[in-house]
Amino acid sequence: MAALGQARFVGGCVRDAVLGRPVSDIDIATPVAPDRVMERLAAAGIRVIPTGLAHGTVTAVLGKAHFEITTLRRDITCFGRHAEVAFTDDWRADAARRDFTFNALSCTADGVLYDPFDGLADLAAGRVRFIGSAFERIREDVLRILRFFRFYARYGTPPADGEALEACGTLAPLLPGLSGERVRAELFRLLDHERCAEIWALMTECGVIGALLPVATGIFRLDALVRLERDHGTGTGRAVIRLAALLAGAGRAEIEAVTARLRLSRREREHLLALAAPDFALGPGDDPAFQRRALLRLGDPELFRDRMLLAAAGDESAPEMLAAAFAVLDQAADRRFPLTGTDLLACGISAGPELGRVLAELRDWWADCGFLPDRAACLSEVARRTALSS
After folding, report:
1. At residue 175, what are phi and psi to the nearest 5 degrees?
2. More confident call, 310 vs 83
């Protein structure tokens, strides 16, 4: 960091390094003005991208690694997220602009740690605490309400900070003004966490969920789903199915409204609707033959698995049946129905509705046989059926 003069690592990378957790994004702060930062990086042979010069941020690129470098700032006028700032050399003034005490930590390259707001003590105690007034920090950017609960899920231990909860509840009516993309990003990161049901309940109690997604109330089903996912090792990245659990009992129009509010991608929208507003019932207690046919009808092993998990989360007697349901998935793994409509035409089946009917019946027969018959066996079955109908 010699090219930057006095510089420090700041924020999340310092916080996670202190905890011994993996560090992903590395942010750097410096009192050097952004134009001078770019000059010095270029002189050192480092590629630099002017990602946010108006706010003092450039990105240094070394191989595949990217490092955001931001000039120290102080607020002149604050009107939400888009504050008017001025560059400064005051490290404390820059740190005071951050949200939580442990996000104000900074560290030099030789390991000297700076902690202007007792963030280390809060981190050690599992306290998620706003810098200064929680009310003021949230009025600066109402997204900090959602960030508080997400950080509490990852770093906090009960009870949550009282002032923070009061501020979040009082200012929750401001949440509808946030863009769907920002809300989705925060809520999905929370839903991917193993404590999501506990935190969602706390957000509901504070009035945060009522202000954002009032139909997302299925907390007990969410809790059961998270436990099932843990027991069956379904992995991370489960935000859509967990949102579906919260929407248990909501109508299709209400679910459509949620997809629009969160600006979900087309794939996310379709997956959520297929889970929360399914077009036919399916559960782990169903007959295996029905499950195999349903898997073919869905045409998506992930959707089949999620439908099974979601149904089991809403039925106390179903979890023990999931192993048998997942065996159906194992049977179908890497297997595709070996015939097409063209094959049936070559066998003398007439084009049109008759072709569709025969193809559907053959697919059901193939599923009933455990997805085992190969192409030759399927063609023999076509011949047998054709002979019987002659």
Report:
1. -60, -40
2. 310
